[in-house]
């Protein structure tokens, strides 16, 4: 396991008590650039944009275009902000005369909300609202329009289904099933999970009911539509808190019907990557308490890595081949999320977001790695097809036989941007036991090595007449 250091970060100002799940990244003003939305326990939403430490927009029960906020008391707020609002000199929204903007829609649903998910869970192309509660209940809602042509959305939430779970609900996620149909997943204690079946499209007799005036109506308790799965392996604590994340991308796969990947983590340090229902790809045990699980493509190859964060700031990044990279934040963390955020240059980049106990939000942007696995200079050179051809033109034998004649050291040094760059040191003379067949082979190979490392895009030059120091 190797460690990495990211130095490009911004510190955002935040005051209040944050609920761990009330933080997300997304495009809230339809400009294709993602913003950071944070909500505190008093009902205030703060929207951060770019690298400004001050919130771009802060108001009570407010958000941006189609931002959904659900309170613990059960109040569902649908928020919309028109772009015609005035801005001050620093680009922040002004409020005139103490005027407080209000949500465009408000409806009461069952209280004690714990987690929330907005996604297409039944494959009809429309997003549903899924809410997990502290009493081990999960409910699904759908938005139904009641009018058209109005400036703001007109409609209501209707209840689709209610599921009862055996254990506490800590995470909700959606992942493609064996046939490519979305599967709604919920975490269960002891590194377990359950699949919630969406049967309202199959049961023509089931009619959605509004959760507003009809909140007291009887709801069918769908315990039979909960399929519980216990992951393989030994679990020391059957009641340990568990989180999951689904729909982990594995590149541009031509098989669109393949099952999705999903990951689970527990508070006692267990990490697992799963495919389908019971196929375990790998399992990792760490000595930290993991409380948050995300996914992020840090290599840019289309394969999303699993990102897990512990209370003490230790962050683990693991790829599909079980290669582990860790990153340490020097503060205790109360909330964490990962995704794309437009911090600089008006473009989205991978980022890690940490909320500390010191009223600060740290955003590490441009979180990228050239590769996840560790490597050495020989592997890097052998990956280039022209390297072996050039060695053959110089009359050098097998690459590994030639490399055995050298003492070489490869290390990494942090650059100005926080990335790590390979540096090679090669002795001026080969060992005494090696006698090249041609005295010109040594300087030619040395020059080839220097050009491959430092000038890979330039055409090869003629071999030098005498020995030269490539450094």
UniProtKB/TrEMBL annotation:
GO terms, biological process: cellular response to amino acid starvation; cellular response to glucose starvation; germinal center B cell differentiation; negative regulation of TORC1 signaling
One Pfam entry name: Itfg2
GO cellular component: cytosol; Golgi apparatus; KICSTOR complex; lysosomal membrane; nucleoplasm
InterPro entries: Integrin_alpha_N, KICSTOR_ITFG2, WD40_repeat_dom_sf
Residues forming coiled coils: none
SUPFAM superfamilies noted in UniProt: Integrin alpha N-terminal domain, WD40 repeat-like
Domain of life: Eukaryota
Stated name of the protein: Integrin alpha FG-GAP repeat containing 2
Lineage per the UniProt record: Eukaryota, Metazoa, Chordata, Craniata, Vertebrata
